[in-house]
Each structure stands twice: as structure tokens, then as C-alpha cells.
Specification:
Radius of gyration: 17 Å
Strand order of the largest sheet: 2-3-1-4-5
Number of helices: 9
Mean pLDDT: 86
Structural class: alpha/beta
Number of strands: 5
Order of helices and strands: EHEHHHEHHEHHEH
Length: 237
């Protein structure tokens, strides 16, 4: 019997080009095919930008006060890793907004699956971009805080060889990323640094006991979608 009061969050993370968005979109389509309520988080929020300060202020006004604890941890993560700039402040805001979304949707207490392919874990690594993580102290605090607040959040670690990821990125059209603007040598170097940072964060995820699942997108899309679909159904039935 299906648990009609069960919400599940799937948060995907991985280096650019590893297949996060393709995988999450296909999982959405498969769950919709069996008439289960499923959405991408982009339906609920948009990534804050400097160009849309009105939208940014609207989000901040409606945040639950408890979400500002996540904001404090995010700011300390920036400070201890010496990565203070405007784009990273906006990433911290994204972390606060996602934390708030997880809590509010959990309180609604209804059956639904929400997929997030630019979530809190992804933001922690994106903040570093092409520099190595200095300290994971506040990453540990953020993940432990998240585990406590959102027990129905599952982290999907998407993996793909960095050279394959770079080649996939360069086949992408529209929405050109910073890595696509680099030559092959520098692009692969940047992806290797990001992969090392993901490995550190994923180790923290395991240490905290947060539920996670590893997916290698060398396997076919259909195979991985079926794996994730069965994983989700095992949580909601």
C-alpha cells in the first residue's frame, strides 16, 4: 500500500557533464508515467541572481526563521574556505532557500517526490569552483544539520570520468558553462579539482549517516532510471 503522507527529496550532485539533469528529468518522466506526484524543484524556486533582486527579497522575507541557521553555517563555510565573492553569497542564499523549501514541503505532509539537480551539496562544491577545499568543518555542520531537519532527503552521487564529462559538456548547446569556455587541458584540470572536492563532501555524507546512493552514468540512462525509480518506490510504498 502506498504511504499517502510520504514526501521524498532526491538531491543529485556531480561534476558538470556527469548527467545529473538528464538523469533527473528521465526519473521525473518515469514517475509521471505511473501517475505518482513528482516535480523538479525549479517549479517552486528559481536560482537567485543579482539581476532579480526583487525575487531575491521576496524569498528572504518568506523564509522560516529556523532556516537562517543554515545561512550562518553557509557564511562560515565561505569564510573558512576564503571564497568570499558576490556569486558565492548568492549560492549561500540558494542553500538557505532550499533548506526552507525542504522544511516547508515536509510540513505539508503529502505524497510527492521532488528532484533537485542543483542542491545544497552541489552548491558546496560550486562555491570552490576550481580551487581545492581548504576545510570541511562547516560542510560537516551543514550536512549534519540537513540530516536532522530533513530525514526524508536522499543524496544521489552521480559519477562519470572527468574526460567523458568534459566531452559531454562540449557537445552541449546553449547555456554555455564556464568550463566549456576553457581549453581541454584546463577544463579537465578544473573538473579533477571539482571531483576531488565532491569526494571529500561525499565522505562527509557517509560519516554523518545521511542516506545516499551512488550512480555511475557510464551505464545506460534506462538502467539508471530504473534503479532510481525502484529506489524511490521502495521509500514511498
Amino acid at each position: 500500500m502506498m504511504n499517502n503522507n510520504k514526501i521524498v527529496f532526491l538531491e543529485f550532485n556531480g561534476i558538470p557533464g556527469s548527467g545529473k539533469t538528464t538523469l533527473s528529468n528521465n526519473v521525473i518522466e518515469n514517475l509521471k508515467a505511473i501517475d505518482y506526484p513528482v516535480e523538479s524543484y525549479q517549479r517552486f524556486i528559481q536560482k537567485p541572481t543579482r539581476k532579480d533582486l526583487k525575487q531575491l527579497v521576496k524569498y528572504l522575507i518568506h523564509l522560516k526563521p529556523s532556516s537562517f541557521r543554515m545561512g550562518y553555517l553557509g557564511m562560515m563555510y565561505l569564510l573558512t574556505n576564503r571564497k568570499i565573492n558576490c556569486e558565492n553569497w548568492l549560492r549561500v542564499v540558494s542553500i538557505i532557500i532550499l533548506d526552507d523549501l525542504y522544511l516547508k514541503k515536509s510540513i505539508e505532509n503529502r505524497a510527492e517526490v521532488i528532484l533537485v539537480d542543483q542542491g545544497i551539496i552541489q552548491q558546496l562544491v560550486s562555491i570552490m569552483y576550481e580551487t581545492e577545499l581548504v576545510t570541511d568543518r562547516f560542510a560537516k555542520k551543514i550536512i549534519a544539520h540537513l540530516k536532522k531537519r530533513v530525514p526524508n532527503l536522499y543524496i544521489i552521487n552521480v559519477a562519470l570520468d572527468v574526460t567523458d564529462s568534459f566531452d559531454r559538456l562540449n557537445q552541449r548547446v546553449g547555456n554555455i558553462s564556464r568550463i566549456q569556455q576553457l581549453n581541454r587541458k584546463n577544463g579537465i584540470r578544473t573538473l579533477k579539482i571539482q571531483q576531488k572536492n565532491f569526494d571529500i563532501i561525499r565522505s562527509v555524507i557517509r560519516e554523518t549517516g545521511m542516506a545516499s546512493m551512488d550512480i555511475n552514468t557510464h551505464a545506460g540512462v534506462e538502467e539508471n532510471v530504473l534503479l532510481l525509480k525502484n529506489f524511490v518506490l521502495g521509500k514511498i510504498l
